[in-house]
Amino acid sequence: MSAETTSKAMVWTGRVLTGLFAAFMVMDTGIKLVRLPVVAQTLTQLGYPPEQGLAIGIIEAVCLALYLWPRTAVLGAILFTAVMGGAIASHMRLNDPLVSHTLFGVWLGLVMWGGLWLRDARLRTMIPLRRP
User: Fold this and answer.
1) Is residue 89 part of a domain?
2) Which domain holds residue 121?
3) Residue 3 placed within a domain
4) CB 32 within 8 A of CB 54
5) pTM for the full model?
6) First to last CA, the chain
7) Whole-number Å distance between alpha carbons of 16 and 54
8) Are 90 and 82 within 8 A, CB to CB?
9) pLDDT single digits (tens) 61-115
10) Position 61 in a domain
């Protein structure tokens, strides 16, 4: 399928992936912004001061707003990729389980970028899938 072609199925699949990603991030950001105790506990386990949860929540909220606004969606995805890279590095540093903890940011990133790629023909032009 050419990069210029966007079927309804692709658009809807992209919207569903974007919705799943957004729902998860609203929950994740929300618990940080309301300062639930689980955030402080988790940050402490990761070796970070618990009060950094609010700052991380604000950063995630800004990234999510940028990602969900069509004109800035790619910028939001790039910034979210950086946030996820930090999370991956934090889990690697502690030698956490690979598939469930360390690579969770990779799985989340695939859903995020996949949703955007499926619904945006311009992005598919820049990042085409090639057949052998």
Assistant:
1) yes
2) 8-126
3) no
4) yes
5) 0.89
6) 14
7) 28
8) no
9) 999 999 999 999 999 999 999 999 999 999 999 999 998 889 999 999 999 999 9
10) yes
**Nearest CA among 61, 56, 94 for reference residue 76:** 61
- Does the residue 131 lie in any domain? no
* Number of structural domains found in the chain: 1
- Lookup: tokens for 85: 């890279």
**Closest by Cα among 8, 16, 87, 5 to 45:** 87
Per-residue HEC secondary structure of the chain comes to CCCCCCCHHHHHHHHHHHHHHHHHHHHHHHHHHCCCHHHHHHHHHCCCCCCHHHHHHHHHHHHHHHHHCHHHHHHHHHHHHHHHHHHHHHHHHCCCCHHHHHCHHHHHHHHHHHHHHHHCHHHHHHCCCCCC
